[in-house]
User: Fold histidine kinase from Lactobacillus kefiranofaciens.
Amino acid sequence: MKVKTTTEQLTQLFVSLFTIILVLVNIAFLVISSAYIYHHAQERSQDIAEAVEENLNPEYDWTALLDAYLAKQEDDAITLTTPQGRTYYSEDAHETFKKIGYHRHYQSMVFTEKHIYFLNSATHHGFRINVALNIDELFALISWLFFTMLGINALAILISIPLIRRFAHKWSRPIQHMNAEIKDIRNGNRARTKITVPQQPMEIKNLARSFNNLLAFQHNALQREHQFVSDASHELKTPIAAIRGHVNLIKRHGQSHPEIVASSLNYIDKESQKMQALVNELLTLGRIDYSNSKITKIDLVKIISDVITEVSSVYPQKICTHLPEKLDFPIQTTDFRNIVHNLMGNAAKYSPANSEINISLLQKDMQVIFKVADHGMGIAPENRKKIFDRFYREDNSHSSKIAGSGLGLAIVKSEINKYHGKITIENNSPQGTIFTVYLPIEK
Assistant:
């Protein structure tokens, strides 16, 4: 089956609609004209019958009088039957009514082989009047007008096809331009990074904007992935090189200097643990957007309490909490645990050992609000957006002294985005940072 272009589809659609409208107009013309003929003939016949009724007299010789009530129209006829049963005929009325009697009547209309008649009957003081009107001329006029309309309609359809096709091509031109520009982008034309947005129609304008937004999103995603691959390669290259160095050291001098084996193995073990932690966090980042696990309501307070117990066993800071007894929220346990663990772990790593970390959780204005406040070194305002980038460290000179891969806050941001939430950063008093997570509650 041949796939039609937009121009062809629009042309076919509008020509079909135009044809249907013309057919409906013709049908309406036939109905209205037929009704006009019927009512016009009915009024004429009633006028003739009423004129006869006004002059009824049983003593008249109606044979000569009946013709006076008729116009000069051929085959018009009147019969008058007196109370005594005598019937008078206008000229040729006997033959006319005889012909009519052989044919079937349709709502006072009689169609013979050559003529069309309208019949009307009236009774007045025992007199019966029958009128038969020949309406051939009216039907001939209506038929001529109808066939003339058909010819005009056919001509209008033939003229409309190229005009409609031209307008359809004009209306579909923005789509054709979009298709051509998309092909350029697909074929690797780097000079084109977005398609042209037409001013009208509105649907095509919105489609072009949405496509440009999609291109921008895809471009940013590719840039992030390229940066991610570069950063991951850099982060993995250093420990791998160090491990390879110690392995070669053991191979060359292990037998002659056995004392270096233990220290090298200890270093290899430490670096492999760092690599394992890095790989696990990379896998966590990769699974966030593609997790299809069923989401059910869980108690957030219990998860926070469990994470506090873990962090307290590793870090010396005092953790102060302001938590409700229970707060249920629909989120995967692992997702919320990642948010809490990374924010609290970050606060502990960058805060003095004798400082406090304040944790709070509450529900307000149809959202869950989770806060982690520390008294550490703080974050410069210009770096607050960058800290959510993968592998970013604000103070690179001290990054090697602080455990971690630089992926923690990237994981937090991705988890929050997954649930359409947001995270803000504020200065703490007198120093430090406050991270606030907002998770909306769906109605």
In short: Confidence is low (pLDDT under 50) at residues 396-400. Residues 274 and 405 are 8 Å apart (CA to CA). The domain at 6-141 is CATH 3.30.450 (Beta-Lactamase). The chain is about 55% helix and 15% strand.
